[in-house]
Design goal:
Blueprint: H1 2-15, H2 27-31, H3 33-41, E1 51-60, E2 70-73, E3 78-81, E4 87-93, E5 95-102, E6 109-115, E7 119-120, E8 123-125, E9 151-155, H4 156-159, H5 171-175, E10 181-182, E11 192-193, E12 201-205, E13 208-209, E14 214-215, E15 220-221, E16 228-234, E17 248-254, E18 263-269, E19 272-282, E20 286-295, H6 297-309, E21 315-334, E22 337-358, E23 365-390, E24 393-417, E25 424-450, E26 453-479, E27 482-492, E28 496-510, E29 515-528, E30 531-547, E31 550-561, E32 563-566, E33 577-580, E34 588-602, E35 605-622, E36 639-656, E37 660-674, E38 683-684, E39 691-700, E40 705-714, E41 718-719, E42 724-728, E43 741-742, E44 748-752, E45 759-760, E46 764-776, E47 782-790, E48 800-805, E49 811-816, E50 822-830
Parallel strand pairs: 1-7, 1-8, 12-17
Antiparallel strand pairs: 1-4, 2-3, 2-5, 5-6, 9-16, 10-11, 12-13, 14-15, 16-17, 18-19, 18-50, 19-20, 20-21, 21-22, 22-23, 23-24, 24-25, 25-26, 26-27, 26-28, 28-29, 29-30, 30-31, 31-34, 32-33, 34-35, 35-36, 36-37, 37-38, 37-39, 39-40, 40-46, 41-45, 42-44, 43-44, 46-47, 47-50, 48-49
Length: 831
């Protein structure tokens, strides 16, 4: 045991502090940890036998690597888990071993391996719909067995449920049902995790950061479920390899593509459609995976307006579209080396135009036009090279490029035609540009000296080029009696260049059959202008498992954030923009404590109870701007620096049998803010939802029919309303109206606000239903009809409120709720 302590101290001195990492251990493996103790103490009974490493990839029958699959040796009761690229490494003693590999949704495979030297061995699993045969204790990614707190892994099956809003499956809306997460405004793809803001979530798509994560002002997320393979969601115990945001990490990995068979699908939905193709370029060596999703509202609105405008003098047009394009190319050079190129392109476009004319006589005529164009989106590229330097050392090198852009163009033209008299024309145009370019690299190393010791370390560099607001305005006035044109042109631009270096190291060890620890550190260096910020973020997670079906965990994490999203709306608008920390401000920081208990009372049930406390500092809020286009010039002079704190308890329960699964979660939470320049003391956040309760169920009624139901209840959002009038002296020439009212003594009456977010809107609840109807053709193709119902019992939830004054000068609040039941359907053809 003394040598265990020395080994623990050695890792502590090597990496500076403890970190957290996504992994866990099979309970059967726990019972074999006496073998580990003997190895560490140097008294292993088999020390005379040599030890060799079995390594390789776990894949499905199409060659797709499987993330978080469990590889377990039944002979020595030692196990490991595949990484984000499906690679595993397991060091065992010389001789024969029974290797069991399992993954949720696939048949468990047991193979006999004779180890006489280091061996590369790929494991291929076959799909299996009979999930009742899978035992949770064999899943090292189970909350019962992994070391860190607050991690959720989702496969494509979890995302592509039988229910999908407006016929499009959605990654973010799936995460919204998670405990500890608030969804913000109804229908929007908001994500407010443990009291954090929407910009405090790190979205990674194949290792590249995604800035615009929604379409249609938040109605859809930017992730095409057809190409998504796995999603790892962290909300409390962050591994040291992640950094840059305060509240959560959403690591999305896309599929490589089928190495042996070409196939695809076509989906036609209510508002959008999708194409998906994958297959080999060189069989067994090179593959492609292509997905395209596009809305077709513009294909409907354009001809509709053309028909409507026929024979009309005043004409209107409105067109909106969005698209996603994902392409991934993968090439296997050898069993030790492979490379992939991942490309994502997403764009939204909203164009509107109004042409009008009027005449006061047969000759006099006025006409004009008003036009608006909004376009925003992302371009992400990642070039990955995986290389296995040795059976125990795996490395991944990534070159990344991200381009995020938003454009707004508006013009207003008016012409007055008066024959024989003066002709006047005016033109006002307004342009707005915002963009971010990130260029960098990632170097990540995965070292497993033995099955009970897993080390990760790496270094990242990112060059940030921010152009938060390039503004142009043109005002032109022309008079036919005056040949000179009166034109005023205004232009302004802002740009910031920043360099970010990140170093991390994390180490997970099994100390004995009951204790495991994951520790590490993340170091960030952020340089902008003449200012350099350096932050040290330690991470520590520990697990104690006193019994086979019971474990306790605790974690401590610190996070830093150097970029901020400036917005004055809870929708995802093109007028929002990202800016870096400046010399006037400090980077945002947070620390979080989390602890929980996890129990599996039977093979059908899994229960967990987690509590957390999180404190954030240097969070930002606009001080006075209220428009949709907050100015980027000197933006750091118009924000307030404040604090945030949130705490709560989360209870989750899972029940699973062969054809039916049920998940329930309950969250009791508090979320508060403190801005001294805004309010004296702490006040509740807008999305401080005290109680949240959700149930989701999936039922395979037959081989042809599957059903899904999700019921959500939460305390209503908060908002600020006035509590009384106060009388102010009447100012000469003061304009009446707005929020000012006249009292009987001639003084002005104004609203008085005692505290921000001082009322709670009515409780929110709804039921969503979905059904899939499957049919297989004689040629083996599959057809799927989907019917989904949003808000199935048509409960009208509060969307916004209006403050009014009655005849007796009393404050009245009117609740507005208008989103009813929304049916949707889709048809999918797989070939």
């Amino acid at each position: 045991m003394n040598k265990q302590i020395l080994m623990f101290a050695f890792c502590l001195s090597s990496f500076g502090s403890f970190a957290q990492k996504a992994s866990g251990y099979d309970m059967a493996a726990m019972r074999g940890f006496a073998h580990v103790e003997r190895t560490i103490q140097g008294v292993d009974e088999d020390k005379a036998r040599q030890r060799f490493t079995l390594s390789g990839y776990v894949k499905d029958r199409n060659g797709e690597p499987l993330i978080n699959a469990t590889v377990y040796d039944l002979t020595t009761r030692q196990g490991t888990m595949t990484n984000a690229y499906g690679h595993f490494s397991l060091t065992l003693s010389e001789g024969r071993h029974e290797i069991r590999c399992s993954y949720v949704g696939y048949k468990t495979l047991v193979e006999t391996v004779e180890l006489t030297a280091n061996q590369n061995h790929d494991i291929v699993l076959q799909g299996d719909a009979q999930l009742d045969e899978l035992v949770v204790t064999t899943d090292l990614n189970s909350p019962l067995l992994k070391t860190q707190t607050g991690k959720l892994s989702l496969s494509q099956k979890d995302i592509k449920t039988e229910y999908s809003l407006l016929s499009s499956p959605d990654v973010i809306k799936t995460l919204q049902r998670t405990s500890g997460v608030s969804d913000g405004m109804e229908l929007a793809s908001g994500l407010y995790v443990h009291g954090g803001n929407s910009d405090e979530n790190l979205f990674l798509l194949d290792g590249t950061p995604l800035y615009h994560t929604n379409h249609t002002f938040g109605l859809f997320s930017s992730f095409n479920a057809d190409v998504v393979k796995n999603v790892d969601f962290y909300k409390s115990g962050f591994p040291a390899r992640y950094g840059g945001r305060l509240s959560s990490v959403i690591d999305v990995r896309t599929a490589d593509g089928d190495l042996y068979h070409a196939h695809g699908s076509v989906r036609v939905g209510l508002l959008d459609g999708a194409l998906h193709f994958e297959g080999p370029i060189r069989k067994g060596k090179t593959s492609y995976n292509f997905g395209l999703r596009r809305s077709w509202l513009d294909l409907l609105t354009r001809p509709a307006f053309a028909i409507s405008n026929h024979k009309r003098e005043d004409k209107e047009s409105l067109s909106y579209f969005f698209h996603d394009m994902n392409l991934k190319l993968t090439n296997i050079f050898s069993e030790r080396s492979r490379m992939s190129l991942s490309i994502y392109s997403g764009e939204d476009g909203l164009d509107s135009r109004e042409d009008w004319s009027s005449s006061s006589s047969s000759t006099d005529r006025d006409y004009g036009s008003f036009e608006e164009r909004f376009h925003w989106g992302n371009l992400n590229m990642a070039l990955d090279w995986n290389y296995q330097f040795s059976p125990k050392l795996f490395a991944n090198f990534t070159a990344v490029y991200t381009h995020n852009r938003s454009t707004v163009d508006m013009s207003d033209k008016w012409v007055s035609m008066q024959p024989g008299k003066e002709n006047i024309s005016t033109l006002t145009s307004h342009g707005y540009r915002s963009s971010i370019d990130d260029i960098g690299y990632r170097a990540a190393f995965d070292f497993r000296p033995n099955p009970h010791h897993h080390i990760r370390f790496g270094q990242d560099y990112t060059y940030h080029y921010f152009k938060p607001q390039t503004y142009s305005r043109l005002d032109s006035y022309q008079d036919s009696n005056n040949p000179k044109t009166d034109t005023i042109a205004t232009q302004s631009h802002n740009k910031n260049v920043a360099h970010q270096l990140t170093f991390y190291a994390e180490d997970e060890m099994m100390l004995n059959e009951k204790w495991s620890v994951n520790g590490g550190v993340n170091v960030d260096v952020f340089c902008i202008s003449d200012k350099t910020f350096a932050t040290l973020s330690p991470r520590l997670s520990m697990k104690f498992q006193p019994a086979e079906r019971l474990s306790f965990k605790a974690s401590y994490t610190m996070m830093s954030q150097f970029v901020h999203k400036i917005a004055n709306s809870f929708l995802d608008l093109p007028t929002d923009y990202w800016v870096p920390t400046t010399a006037r401000l400090q980077p945002m920081r947070s620390w979080q404590l989390a602890a929980g208990a996890y129990m599996k009372p039977s093979k059908y049930w899994l229960l967990s109870l987690e509590g957390y406390y999180k404190h954030s500092s240097h969070i930002l809020q606009y001080a006075s701007w209220s428009g949709l286009e907050p100015p980027a010039a000197n933006w750091d002079h118009t924000v307030m620096d404040g604090e945030g704190r949130s705490y709560g308890v989360e209870l989750d329960a899972d029940y699973h049998v062969s054809s039916f699964s049920l998940h329930g979660s309950y969250t009791l939470s508090w979320s508060e803010r403190k801005f001294d320049d805004f309010h004296d003391g702490w006040y509740y956040d807008k999305f401080d939802n005290r109680h949240k309760l959700s149930f989701t169920g999936r039922w395979n009624i037959s081989k042809k029919i599957a059903a899904y139901a999700a019921w959500t209840f939460r305390t209503g959002n908060r908002m600020t309303v006035p509590t009384q009038y106060i009388g102010l002296p009447n100012v000469p020439d003061q304009r009446k109206g707005g929020l000012n009212f006249q009292s009987s003594d001639g003084n002005s009456l104004n609203f008085a606000y005692e505290q921000p977010n001082n009322i709670v809107l009515p409780a929110y609840h709804r039921l969503d239903l979905g059904f899939d109807f499957h049919h297989t053709t004689k040629k083996g193709h599959e057809r799927i009809w989907n019917l989904s119902l949003y808000n199935a019992y048509c409960h009208l939830n509060s969307f916004w409120v209006r403050v009014k004054i009655d005849s007796e000068n009393r404050v009245r609040i009117k609740n507005n709720a208008f989103i009813p039941i929304i049916p949707s359907f889709s048809y999918t053809f797989k070939f």
